[in-house]
Amino acid sequence: ERKFNRAGIAVVRYDAEGRGQSGGEDDHSGPIQQAGLRAMIDWAVAQEKIADEQVGVVTYSAGLMLAAPALVGGVHHAKFIFDWEGPPSKDFLRGCWPGGDGIAFRHPCVDPPYWAERDALIALPKLTIPYWRMQASVDHHGGTHHGHVSSAVAAAASGPAPWVRLNDLPPTTTGYDTATLERGLMRRLTDDARDNYITERVR
Fold first, then answer.
1. Distance between CA 81 and CA 90 in Å, rounded?
2. Residue 119, SS3?
3. Which of 8, 78, 119, 165 is the residue whose CA sits 20 to 30 A from 68?
4. pTM score, two decimals?
């Protein structure tokens, strides 16, 4: 957060309903928290010292499954979404992997209506703002398969988003072929280097 501030970027950290110091019901990235994120964006845009034409959403990991549906589920004023290694659907959450315990977000993996509300692969093709993804070749969960990366990028590129980007590859409106995507993955960064990278890109 301080890195963003030092770069002249105002940060509003979202404690979703039922988490941190926020009251209300924790519906685990569902419609309640998605509406809360849109309300927070509206609040940020209304602040005098914040440049409303540059307000965006930065997500870490599973935050993508809250933010992407939120940004297509109602009116908002966000101008971009920057995603760090987010799982785009429950199929990429550990509990729902083959051999997992069948539970993710404290909910059974087998419940299509529940997960459809949190599925970034359903939301990303409806995005009308740029989508930028940061991804290392070795994911923060240790995985080296990149199906979640190609799925998220392809989903976002299939819709009306002005452009989609992976790391420092050129922005695209059609997605990347497999060789380009693999070449565009970065090495694993420390948390400090990761936050520096994000700060430089969203500034």
1. 20
2. coil
3. 8
4. 0.95
